Amino acid sequence: MKIYAHRGSSGEYPEMTRLAYEKAIEDGADGFECDVRLTKDREIACIHDRDTARIS
Question: pTM for the full model?
Answer without folding.
Answer: 0.71
